[in-house]
């Protein structure tokens, strides 16, 4: 069986992180089964669809490593075909024209609200024998849903789902202005694209039951369906675009690596034994829908940072340096070309304990800036005894010809004895004087990464 999957976002806002995971699961399944993965831009909401969001969707998927086959499919270009199918359903008796006014529908909704039941259109125009067609109302076209019995879907994640047909209303497939609705357009496009598996969020379950009826009415092959549980925020509520970590851009700003976020999203609701870290090749080889859980997943920022730290620690340092440069360029954080070789040489310690690219950038401040500013709370720590330590260190430091860890240890150990203190007592004032902060890389790494003149100048200051 050919595996053909699609990811079908609407360009009405930035791509949500839940959408990225859905795209990832589709893409991995296709890659594993050597099939095709298509990107369909569902832009039929003309008022809200914007080119900038379409670009953001494509860029987001590309950043995380998801490449679609062929050109992206633009849904609005196929509207005439959607309308044609609506007319065909009408002719075959699977749809009907509904002339209810907006006021009538509003009245029905209010009635249901008072009774505390979900609104289902009362099917007034389904059998309009004694009804007179109003002249001033343009009809919508509604699909004639099954009224009795049950419908069953064999979901590849959720198992068998069985619902009563009576809860599926006669949904609109063509609006008053002649434009097709999502339910119709999605089915027609999936059929034309020969989609074999529809993998999407489990908030689409009721849509699947509606859409299955259109497939059956048209006598088309029904794809296999898989509904993935949604991603919830750390508070346990449904993740929305208002959450600060809801789009790819939010993670790029934090300095998260694309491989790390892809690894995290893979593990968010999917498992393979107790394995945590997956290369891209392992992800493709091991992914299957059997490993997807049935419960919602909770976004865990501390876990994302932990995985990101792992990737930062194990990535090739030249590659990490290039990623840092791209990050700094994107967010207008200046790296002078003259500092690049020092930065590259210092990557092995600048990345220590760094959870993000931003952390590495902060750790490198003392290299990037020739003049440093000492934070007021750190300046207080440079008291008279600390300044005496700095003076004595400078005196000994100026005597050495070659700066190595061994030569520096000799000076520091001598000062520990002389000032009856410990390593922190020497290291802390030195770090503040050389970097402007008591936090940062190891003191020997800092001194070795700076040239001798820079160390002398900063200590004198």
Average pLDDT over all residues: 93
* End-to-end Cα distance: 73 Å
Class of secondary structure makeup: mainly alpha
Global shape = elongated
Report the strand count.
Answer: 12
- Name the beta content range: 5-15%
Could you walk me through the main structural features you see in this protein, from its secondary elements to its overall organization?
This protein has 461 residues and is mainly α. The chain has helices at 17-32, 51-64, 79-91, 102-115, 182-192, 205-218, 248-254, 258-267, 280-286, 301-314, 317-330, 340-350, 357-363, 365-368, 376-379, 384-397, 405-419, 423-435, 443-449, 452-460; strands at residues 4-7, 36-41, 73-74, 95-98, 140-143, 150-155, 159-164, 172-174, 197-201, 224-228, 231-232, 297-298. The strands form 5 sheets. A 3-stranded parallel sheet has the order 1-2-3, covered by helices on one side. Helix 16 (384-397) crosses helix 18. The protein is elongated and about 105 Å long.
State the main characteristics:
single chain; 461 residues; mainly alpha; elongated
Task: Set out the fold topology.
Blueprint lengths: L3 E4 L9 H16 L3 E6 L9 H14 L8 E2 L4 H13 L3 E4 L3 H14 L24 E4 L6 E6 L3 E6 L7 E3 L7 H11 L4 E5 L3 H14 L5 E5 L2 E2 L15 H7 L3 H10 L12 H7 L10 E2 L2 H14 L2 H14 L9 H11 L6 H7 L1 H4 L7 H4 L4 H14 L7 H15 L3 H13 L7 H7 L2 H9 L1
Helix pairs in contact: 1-9, 3-5, 5-6, 8-10, 11-12, 11-13, 16-17, 16-18, 17-18
